Structure prediction request, 289 residues.
Amino acid sequence: MKVCNSCNEKFISSEWKCPSCNYLPKVIDNHLAFAPELAQASDGFEAGLFSQLAPLEAKNFWFRSRNHLIIWALKRYFLKATKFLEIGCGTGFVLQGIERAFPKLTLFGSEIFTAGLSFASQRLLRTELFQMDARKIPFENEFDVIGLFDVLEHIEEDREVLAEIYRATAKGGGIILTVPQHPWLWSQADDYAHHVRRYRAQELKIKVEGAGFKVVKITSFVSLLLPLMLVSRLSQKRPNQNYSIMSELKISGWLNTTLENVLNLERIMIKFGISFPAGGSLLLVARKL
Ligand SMILES: [Zn+2]
Prediction:
């Protein structure tokens, strides 16, 4: 069901014109824009980064492994889902993986920046994309699964966002989240990425359940690489004038392959039911009962 962003009227219609107040969302660059005032710039992420990020993601071990994990979680916990929304879809790398793995799933992607959407629309074949502020989601009981992959840590009002997501999720559906873990792993990379926080597992669980969800799986990942991360993060505690997130992503071929193999092994263990207590990131799956 749709929710009018102007008067909060709930309505079922194929069109967006509100039957109560006639409000019609704007269209920017061919995408519906529910928060056009935020479409160009926001504190959360540097929109210009998308153009640099897009070609690197496809090769990078971390993005590739995270995609495999997300696809596994979707199959394992929400096999019957028909409607999936990714909030904060960035360049569309995750949705591209989901398009390929779930040919029958109807897909939606949202992003606060229209710059991200123009990249995503080049990459995606059948995903409907729109511009939206996650703090004001114009849907109720609409999506079987909503995914946020390394998005929540960018948003000050995370509880508010989770409450909005709960409303937008259909009963029997749920959410899949990934977030960076452990406040003590905070480094220049988090500053650079405009993170508001790194989560503790318990904190994330409490916030998600506070919104009404029932958590069914929570595990760390990038656990086996934690010692390596620690070394890298400690070396970054001294601010580096020339720091660039791109230099973190541009790693040599053999190292990339080795790290990906380690994360492949880790994922096999997660599939067998192991939940890692510590790791660079957290995966959480929860249901709306
Ligand atoms: Zn209205």
